[in-house]
Amino acid sequence: MEKTSKVNVPRRPIWTGSLTIGLVNVPVKLYPMIYDRGISFRFLHKSDGHPLKYQKVCTKDEKVIPWEEVAKGYEIAKNEYVIFDKEELEAVKPESDKRIRLDKFVDYFSVDPIYFDRSYALMPDKSSDAYSLLLTAFEKKGKAGVGRITLRTKEYPALVHAYKGAIVLTTLRYAYDVVDPQGFEELKKLKEPEKAELDLAVKIVTDLSGEFDITEYKDRYRQKVEELIKKKVKGETVVVEKPVEEEAKGLMVALRETLKQLEKK
Amino acid sequence: MKEKLTKVEFTNLDKTIFPKLGIAKAQVIEYYIKIAPKMLGVLENRPLVLTRFPDGINREGFYEKDAPQGKPSWVKTVKIYSETAKRDVNYVLCNDLDTLIWLANLAAIEIHMPFSKADSREKPDMIFFDVDPEPPATYKEATTVALLLKEKLDNLGLESYVKTSGKKGIHVLIPIVPENSFRETRNFVHKIGEQLAKEQKLVVSEFKETKKPGKVFVDYLQNSHGRTMACPYSLRAVPEATVSTPLEWSEVKKGIKPTELNIFSVVKREKDPWKGILENKQRLKV
User: Fold this and answer.
1) Among A124, A173, B5, B97, which residue's beta carbon has the most beta carbons within 10 A?
2) Is the pTM higher than 0.95?
């Protein structure tokens, strides 16, 4: 078993406000729940090991430009921009009204996971009783509330639902942000499978059916990089070994067998 | 030190070669690795002609006589002057496993071999009967003719070997001591074809009759310098990924189907019906 270091619970909420259903108001704090735990590297100067920094350089005269002189531009045609001041964009920013209004309740499983964006934990903000009541209601009915929330500068559709004894908010993607796969040419050329082939495919699917367990999947690249880091820290030299491609592994097995046979001759 | 099993550097292993069956190049190479012990003996010292399909069999392939550019130094070749091209052509010789794997990695799906070896090119060591059905005649009609042919050769005291072409035809061969000319082996096959044509109305023996619908041509013309056939256990560039498979005569009699003999099934066949073929060289009384 691999030891999975648990993600610590975040200390500070990133948003506070209230969950509103009709006339009921439940003050809540919102904490991030999702972390992308990839391994991040910094770029260094190879010869002296110092970190590199980025600078904004004007493409016209190659001069470094300070922040005060930076504006935002929207490209309306090739190399043609309309320019915005920071204040102009600030003025049209959606104002968060610090409310998550739930308009209706739907079956949680009726929302396709393709729309799920990011999940946040909602915690009671001196409102344990109301929170507990709402949570229990969610759990009992197996329903999820649909509403919207404004985080930073963006307004999201959101789903509020029970997860492991907590109320969780999952932001959703807009319909226009998701590709309709029926637009792919490839799908138009699909043929109806023949019955014998279909039977075989169905059998394979049946044989391989099982329970989903996310912990069966590990980030193997991350594990390997972590091993390398440990070795480097200890001062061991790291031998760069080109891994055998996945497809080539079968070939190696066949090769060993054939070489054995040829030797016998 | 990691053991190195082959000198070949594999490339583009996931390239699809047989799209209908979803077979990638890795599986083609695996096939040739597995079949190699049965294949290599017959190929030895024969200048090969390759049909390569780098983008899969649905894209245009190409014939290749000249050893391709970038050939590693350990691949053996033989230089032969080509009358048609008016220049020397460097043919590949496949005498070891690494060369066979290298060919497979080049997507040389079909490997064609001549009926004589590089060191005695004018003296064939095999006589070749290409039993070739013309539609609507099929493999079934070819079987009938091949069995008649075997009987005739048996009566002459000649032991013959049979394989599917991998398509519709049947290949019948007799290994011989390399002492006759191609003209002599060609005439021999032609004569046998004429006799068969007299006895069985399915058979035609003359080149000008080859396109007669529903007939089976016993092709003698391939017994010539520079002509080739798909070698035993060569894959064929057809959607079903069939193999030109050496058979027992009893299997031909039972009506084994060429489409059942493919990249997956042939490696599972235990016996090699052509085992020792080149140790069974016979003499032709001309």
Assistant:
1) B97
2) no
